[in-house]
Amino acid sequence: MNSEINQTILGVVEEMVRLAREPAAPGEGEARLKRRVQEHTERKEPREAEPRTPVKLDVLWDRESVTGSVHYDALLRIPGWGSVSIGYCPERGLPWALRGTFRWSEVDMLRVNQHRIGVADVVTQLDFLWAEPWLARQLVDSALITDALEEEPDAFTASDEELQAAMDAFRRRRGLLSEEAMMQWLEQQGLTQRKLETRLEGFVKIRKLRQRVVAGREEAYFASHKSEFEVAVIARIVLGELERARSLYERLRGGKVDLLQAATEALREQTPSPHRWESPPPLLDRVRRSALPSEQAAVIFAATPGAVLEPLETKAGYELRQVLTLEPAVLDAATRAAIGEHLFQEWLAERRAAADVEWLWGHS
């Protein structure tokens, strides 16, 4: 092991000793340890011709329920060399290896009474419900985002005002407007207040990362993809049988019923779906061209306002669509947000393609 890595390890140990003597909040302690590694990595002597070995640091922390003290454990990952685990325990403290007496399988996520649910079961069940590998991809993306945030930790620091705004928005969105409702929700989710704050801090950092990735590229993207952001205001009416859908289509197109009458008639005949994820779409909707399959988009945006389109088979049933208005593309706040999301997803896709991903469950 070269002297450069030795100095980095010693620097982490020194910072752990300071944290044991000068207590700090877990977030602050983690930041201090990562800054210490960054300082050693970036520091360069005049005689050095080559850059220092890049080192990444993962930090784990645990708070003592009785004393409130925080214990840290660090994992230094050194490309081309290996990993070093570092822990410091003050005198009369409890070393990390001895903390906790209950052992569980690394592939278990949840235990209810005597029944255990594995990580693989959770991921596959959720992805089956959503009919696409959404959760598995989200887990990979989360790790890639964490890597990006750790490359420049100081660039994405969340202010107290940003954290409070994130917490307020979260509580409003969930309807957790009272302290009692908030505490009950935390208990149901198996979370502590601190863990929730840490997650919200992560969301704020991700928003900052997204802003950096997009970095004023919305105008150029909009100029070259303008037609994708044209908007159609449409009415959708869903029926369970093709024959009924064709009959209502002919009557609506011939003016024998208006839109409200047709929607009311369809609603009366509607049988509730046994599956929550197959609920019918809203009666009125604004859709972007880019959000539709190309064939559907071509039909909708070629129609004149007021046109009633042929019934379309969907997972919710047979859908009647009437085009109410067509709107040209405008670079407003909603369009900027859509472009930003698209650019960020492109950035993630590039990092996924270059990443080394290994699923570990099921190997025990």
Provide the fold topology.
Blueprint: H1 3-21, H2 26-42, E1 56-63, E2 70-78, E3 82-87, E4 108-112, E5 115-118, H3 119-130, H4 134-151, H5 160-174, H6 179-189, H7 193-214, H8 218-224, E6 231-239, H9 242-253, H10 259-269, E7 284-288, H11 294-302, E8 308-314, E9 317-327, H12 333-354
Antiparallel strand pairs: 1-2, 2-3, 4-5, 6-7, 6-9, 8-9
Verbal overview:
With 364 residues, the chain is of the alpha+beta class. Among the domains are: 3-92, no CATH class; 108-151, no CATH class; 231-327, Chitinase A, domain 3 (Roll). Helices cover 48% and strands 18% of the residues. It contains twelve helices and nine strands. β1 and β2 (70-78) form a beta hairpin. The longest helix has 22 residues, at 193-214.
Structural class: alpha+beta
End-to-end distance? 32 Å
Assign an overall shape.
elongated
The helix tally amounts to 12
Largest sheet: 4 strands, antiparallel
**What is the CATH architecture descriptor of one domain?**
Roll
User: Helicity range of the residues?
Assistant: 40-55%
For this structure, the CATH topology of one domain is: Chitinase A, domain 3
CATH class of one domain: Alpha Beta
Task: Please provide the ordered H/E string of secondary-structure elements.
Answer: HHEEEEEHHHHHHEHHEHEEH
Q: Please list the strands of the largest sheet in the order they lie side by side.
A: 7-6-9-8
> Hey, roughly how much beta strand do the residues contain?
15-25%
Mean pLDDT: 82
Tally the beta strands: 9
Radius of gyration: 28 Å
- Stretches with pLDDT under 50, minimum 5 residues: none
